[in-house]
Amino acid sequence: MKAIYDGPPEGLAERLGKPGEYPYTRGIYPQMYSSGRYWTMRQYAGFGSAEESNERYRYLLSQGQTGLSVAFDLPTQLGLDPDDPLAQGEVGKVGVSIATLDDMRTLLKGIPLDKVTTSMTINAPAMMLLALYILVAEEQGVATENLGGTIQNDILKEYIARGTYIFPTQPSMRLITDTFAYCAKNLPNWNTISISGYHIREAGATAPQEIAFTLANAKAYVRAALSQGLDIDAFGPRLSFFFACHNNILEEVAKFRAARRMWACIMREEFGATNPKALMLRFHTQTGGSMLTAQQPENNVVRTAYQALAAVLGGTQSLHTNAKDEALGLPTPDSARTALRTQQILAYESGIPAAIDPLAGSYYVEHLTDELEAQANDYLSKIEALGGSVKAIEAGFIQQEIEEAAFHFQREVEAVNQVVVGVNRFEIREETSTPIQEIDPAVQEKREQQVQAYRRKRNQAHTDAALAELKQVAKGSSNIFPVVLAAFRAGATLGEICGVLKLEWGEYQA
Predict the structure, then answer these.
(1) Using CA atoms, how far apart are residues 169 and 160, in angstroms rounded to an integer?
(2) Is the pTM of this model over 0.85?
(3) Contact assessment for residue 392 and residue 398, using Cβ atoms and an 8 Å cutoff
């Protein structure tokens, strides 16, 4: 595909730079999508058992999806086995239930891991789910250096906005830096963290807050890695980001451009990175779930399309488009397909990808980009004065800022100063019913039986020895990743591994 336009008006070029050049305001690649290589179309999916989710993944791949994105259920996110009393009522509800190597084998059955990249939205036990993924790849005969994908692995935003944490801050940071180190040697093409502004924005943050709090967390991860002796030019290129895209199209485009420029400057000026790939802010985007409405859900198709457009105009590397029924429940196959088609129409019919950073040089977009950067830098200065992101989280500063922003937005909606179509204006009295994806309550019992059968068939002595070794390593400072791999090879479950670490490290209390 030939580019139509790739330069800003005369006079702005020097300040903005070119696409693919520092400070990457205009994009991280010289040609962006105009080369014919589009963003990865990655639909977030997972529910019930591994068998059901595998069926959905294979369906989406058959419909043209180009990457997997795995949603895990709440017990998995909290490191609990499905037969744990604390897991009751939540197994398979908001994602797929994974506790054992058998589960991961089933989840990925028939999916060639050397050809498909996989994103896993998992944080507190991210190392454990990646370990299971590696073991299945080995069984497929896929070398670890050929694996591509991302684990979210962003625990700081869990303390800020989402709440699926397990361990205190320091051992949690150890799991992250140990993952950085292990993957640098063994999984060179794997993104070891996806630093998430998405959940921060969905919790109520404004656009400049999303930029600032995300980059503040990123700086904390970089400092933690440097403190372990890791080379910034080696691990820096494997850092990735995850942003929300809300309804204000031009503000969202400017947000992505400002974040890219800020991160390039932070990595070069503050941390001394010299590898160009370590300076690039590569990001996945998901359209705004909190922007969807249960009222008139068909309107959500339009909202999602505009948000997807903004993400592409802003230069995203990967995109998930929400389905129209996600304000009501998990998406049905039909609504998931429509969400995917939204991306495909944008890629193949709109003509937008032919232009490289098509809004560059727009007086308004450049003004917004500068304004968002200034506001975000003001927040970063306040966070640095508090001692960095971890200290700011422990002091409650970031959480309070988000809560106040969310409260202000809700007041504006209630006063109808902020219009939400179909909610506070243009309502209709009689709503048409929308089919909702139902999760079979029998999943709970099925998963309990599966994990119990898994424990019965293993060599218990081997499992006990592996868990004892994990306990010893957890007490020290050596890399814990190889020991987690060994424990899963010996038949341990996710809940057992996390249970050992809880006994050694304790649990985080907000």
Answers:
(1) 12
(2) yes
(3) yes
- CA neighbor of 232 nearest in space, from 178, 196, 270, 176: 270
Apex 238 CA angle, 236 and 243, nearest 5: 100
496 Rama sector, left if φ>0, alpha if ψ -120 to 50, beta otherwise: alpha
Strand partners, 425: 421
Q: Which domain holds residue 248?
A: 38-353+364-394
Q: Which of 244, 257, 323 is nearest to 285 (CA)?
A: 244
How far CA 43 is from CA of 319, 333, 353, 418, 457, in Å, comes to 8, 12, 20, 30, 35
Q: Is 36 left (phi over 0), alpha (psi -120 to 50) or beta?
A: left
Considering the domain boundaries, does residue 296 fall inside one? yes
Rounded average pLDDT over 353-367: 93
Q: Given CA atoms 74, 482, 215, 69 in this order, what sign does their dihedral have?
A: negative
Tens-place pLDDT, residues 87-136: 999 999 989 999 999 999 999 999 999 999 999 999 999 999 999 999 99
How many residues are listed for the chain in this entry?
510
Written as six digits, the tokens of 58 are 């294979």
Neighbouring residues of 449: CB distance < 8 A, sequence distance ≥ 6: none
Neighbours of 237 (CB within 10 A): 19
Percent residues over pLDDT 90 in the chain: 86
For the domain that residue 333 is a member of, what is the CATH number?
A: 3.20.20.240
Beta strands of 230-346 (E only): which ranges? 239-245, 283-287, 318-320
Predicted pLDDT at 44: 76
Does 496 reside within a domain?
Answer: no
In this structure, what is the dihedral angle of CA atoms 370, 371, 376, 380, given to the nearest 10 degrees?
80
Identify residue 472 by its one-letter amino acid code.
Answer: Q
Residue 399 falls inside a structural domain: no
Q: How confident is the model at residue 1 (pLDDT cuts 50, 70, 90)?
A: very low
- With tokens 């700011």, the residue in question is 392
Judge whether 130 and 97 are in contact, CB under 8 Å. Answer: no
Neighbours of 190 (CB within 10 A): 23
Strand, coil or helix: 456: helix
The number of domains in the chain is 1
Q: Is there a domain that residue 211 lies in? A: yes
pLDDT in tens, 212-260: 999 999 999 999 999 989 999 999 999 999 999 999 999 999 999 999 9
